[in-house]
RNA sequence: GUGAGUGUAGCUCAGUUGGUAGAGUCCCAGAUUGUGGCUCUGGUUGCCGUGGGUUCAAGUCCCAUCACUCACC
């Protein structure tokens, strides 16, 4: 097997790429969707369920695992892979987004970010170096740099200064773990809010730092789909051509296809797993709110086009009952289904890019998932 | 049998000195984008136990009656 970080593009369809990324725990075929396993578990499901659903690579979280059970404890258990029983690739988010979402209980300085634990209120400090050290202890295959995810609505001045801080932090992260110093990869994160030129500026500052991949951060923070797509279409094609591109925290089926169309290779999002727990299921026919009374006596499968365990074995009536009764099995079956749907979407996209049919695939999903506020919605 | 208390939304209950009813929950529907199984946003629902009376006006006051609960015989 090639060396970790090797990124090979094997097909293209417009700006979209079909590629593979080598990591220390296996090769990831892209475009890829990464299920989110924040605290060392994808809520309600087992590694076996993840494999069955088609998961190649998981996302874990630095902030959460640092607070509990602690990265050093995980290191003593042999690293995150062994600890959670997942032998495939893992990407760890740096905690930058938590810094963003913890607004009110954190302060950002040049040195890093001080914050209070959401668990017990205790004070902690994340510097770029600290975040790298934690991710080193966790042993993830891909580390993310510490960044500041700027809130939606931030003005140009703040956004411009923030992006430069993110750049300085990115440089410190790379210095703390130089390229090639181990099997772990490190991705830089482009910020710049909703100003196309600031996005370009952020990229210009980061692109010469020897990262193995680049991410687009700061999207899906409250903007409209149109605003997000404008920035996405502007910046994604400008990211370094020969390295993997990762769109953080996105998104809906259409967001993902729009990203792929713009040249993005990797995605993660809590949407399939969180919505599964809240009864919103993604199907080939569009969203299904399984709690709806109309499914009370519906003996048909959730999605006849889906081959997952939930769809092949149980009826809508049963899935609705489990949800309404708050049965634990509801979370598991719904999560298995939604993950299968998103992972299938990525698999279909890989095939479509190989066949030059991405536009047709997107048109199909556009029909089932119209964008709010746009024609057809 | 006697005494006391309680009867208001499917459920648990608020309803000021009388001015034709509210909350929580449930139910119905929607949201959820680098995750707290959370949360948020809308919406439906009432012979105010029953029958009389007083009053311009009664869920509120008076009488009777029924049901339930508790205590005592």
Task: Describe the structure concisely.
The strands form four sheets. An eight-stranded parallel β-sheet has the order 4-14-13-12-11-10-6-5. Strands 1-2-3 form a three-stranded antiparallel β-sheet. The chain has a three-stranded antiparallel β-sheet with strand order 7-8-9.
By DSSP (H or I, 4+ residues per run), the number of helices equals: 15
Categorize the overall geometry. globular
Strand content: 15-25%
Spatial order of the strands in the main sheet?
A: 4-14-13-12-11-10-6-5
Largest sheet: 8 strands, parallel
User: How many beta strands in the DSSP annotation?
Assistant: 16
Instruction: Look at the structure and give the mean pLDDT.
Output: 94
Q: Level of helix content? A: 40-55%
- Radius of gyration from the alpha-carbon trace, in angstroms: 20 Å
Distance between the termini: 47 Å
Low-confidence stretches: 373-377
Q: Helix- and strand-based class?
A: alpha/beta
